From TrEMBL:
Domain CBS per the UniProt entry, residue ranges: 40-99, 108-164
Species whose genome carries this gene: Lutimaribacter marinistellae
Segments for region (Disordered): 1-29
Pfam families to which the protein is assigned, alphabetical: CBS
Domain of life: Bacteria
Coiled coil regions in record: none
Biased composition (Polar residues): 18-29
Alphabetical list of SMART domains matching this protein: CBS
Keywords, sorted A to Z: CBS domain
Name of the protein in question: CBS domain-containing protein
Length: 174
């Protein structure tokens, strides 16, 4: 028979609090890695076009640099918009055979969601998922200082996970 002080667990009782390694955010964002950290490895190259450039010039650059989006900047380097391959594909469907001579500013997205070097990668991933885009320009003090993609964030996290797995193996093996 159970001792009289024993209380049988009831439905809804919280037995133990989650440990750090059990929470979703800790699983996704171990180490709270920042955009600045990712840029250290990737570099801060920014490929850009001017609003008055043609889509022909933009697609050549997308092809040469093997990228999916370009920052649109003015002469001073200020961010005016973003032009993604998706914008071009959509326009090609709307204006077949007439897209390449059009100007970038007719296709670009003007309301650009940006981030700063101090933002956490997990928050950037959420922003991209919610906004349904795969690129985020990095801006600090009104100056464009990088571009990160969903692929960059996912690859970075995968490498972190591999490293963490290796550390755990070493702890177990001794
Ligand atoms: P993407 O998935 O990044 O190739 O872009 C999909 C659509 O979102 C295109 O219309 C882009 O112009 C737009 N877009 C891409 N990145 C951003 C961003 N950071 N902020 C706002 N719109 C964006």
């Amino acid at each position: 028979m159970a001792p009289s002080s024993y209380q049988a667990p009831m439905r809804g009782d919280k037995t133990k609090p989650d440990t750090q390694s059990q929470t979703t955010s800790s699983n996704l964002a171990q180490g709270q890695t920042t955009v600045a950290k990712l840029l250290e490895g990737k570099g801060d190259a920014i490929y850009s076009v001017r609003p008055s450039d043609t889509i022909h010039e933009a697609v050549n650059q997308l092809k040469e640099k093997r990228i999916g989006a370009l920052a649109v900047t003015d002469e001073a380097g200020t961010l005016m918009g973003i032009l993604s391959e998706r914008d071009i594909v959509r326009r090609m469907a709307d204006t077949p055979g007439q897209t390449l001579p059009q100007q970038v500013d007719a296709l670009m997205t003007r309301e650009v969601v940006t981030c700063t070097p101090d933002d956490y990668l997990i928050d950037i991933l959420k922003r991209m998922t919610e906004g349904r885009f795969r690129h985020i320009p990095v801006v600090q003090n009104d100056r464009l200082c990088g571009m990160i993609t969903v692929g960059d964030v996912v690859n970075y996290r995968l490498r972190e996970l591999e490293y963490e797995a290796l550390q755990m193996k070493q702890m177990i093996v001794g």
